[in-house]
UniProtKB/TrEMBL annotation:
Its main location: membrane. The chain crosses the membrane at residues 24-44, 51-73, 79-96, 132-159, 179-204. One of its GO terms (cellular component) is plasma membrane. Residues 18-197 form the ABC transmembrane type-1 domain. The keyword Membrane applies. It is found in: Cell membrane; Membrane. GO terms for biological process: glycine betaine transport; transmembrane transport. Keywords: Membrane, Transmembrane, Transmembrane helix, Transport. This is ABC transmembrane type-1 domain-containing protein. The lineage of its organism: Bacteria, Bacillati, Actinomycetota, Actinomycetes, Streptosporangiales. It comes from Nonomuraea gerenzanensis.
Length: 217
């Protein structure tokens, strides 16, 4: 059985695992974005808290993914819970770092001007600073998504959902029937999803970034 015949024979299962993979990555990145941006907004004006938050996220980032997933098994068991937790933790670093860098890069004169026309600190943050920092923050989210795509595949190690099951199943049966087809199907599926997500972020950037002829909030 060649690769195409393998995919055709298991089409429904592969589509199901692809949807699971995409859904898990999208939801995890959304959670990481909310947490990461909140941490970045809360700390960007204060060097020590922002350095601490970045350092903690950086330490988590350095833990090998298999070790992280293994460490999460005792408290969370197998399946979705450890998979989602690991993906969110890995996705935090680029989002926190880019949020801090983006907000610090806003011209102080523009912030003073916003305050000068009567904007409150909260309104200046939401209407001026976050808007100007958005391209940098979006880049962090984009990097986090590509990272999450790979970690989600490794999450099959703890029985996580998605295309990682095809990869791990193939590797476990290496040398057996359809082992290579299974591994290739999972790998190619993850790569295609990564490209599709990246394309969506490029489009989102064009639609929401000032100066690109796009819609502005």
């Amino acid at each position: 059985m060649n690769l195409w015949e393998y995919i055709e024979d298991r089409w429904d299962l592969i589509v199901f695992e692809t949807v699971q993979h995409a859904s898990m990555v999208a939801q995890c990145v959304l959670v990481a974005t909310v947490l990461g941006v909140l941490v970045g907004v809360a700390t960007y004006r204060r060097p020590r808290p922002s350095a601490f938050a970045t350092a903690v996220a950086g330490v988590l980032f350095t833990i090998p993914s298999l070790a992280m997933l293994g460490l999460l098994i005792p408290p969370l068991g197998l399946g979705v819970a450890p998979s989602v937790t690991a993906i969110v933790l890995y996705a935090l670093l680029p989002i926190i770092r880019n949020t801090v860098v983006g907000l610090r890069g806003v011209d102080p004169a523009l912030v003073d001007a916003a305050r000068g026309i009567g904007m409150s600190r909260h309104r200046s943050l939401t209407r001026v600073e976050l808007s100007l920092a958005w391209p940098v923050i979006l880049t962090g989210i984009r990097v986090a998504t590509q990272l999450a795509m790979g970690i989600a595949a490794v999450a099959a190690y703890v029985s996580g959902p998605g295309l990682g099951e095809q990869i791990f199943s193939g590797l476990a049966r290496l040398g057996g029937a359809n082992a290579v087809n299974s591994t290739l199907t999972g790998t190619i599926g993850v790569a295609i999803l990564a490209l599709l997500f990246d394309g969506c972020f490029v489009l989102l950037g064009k639609l929401t970034t000032p100066g690109t002829g796009a819609v502005r909030g």
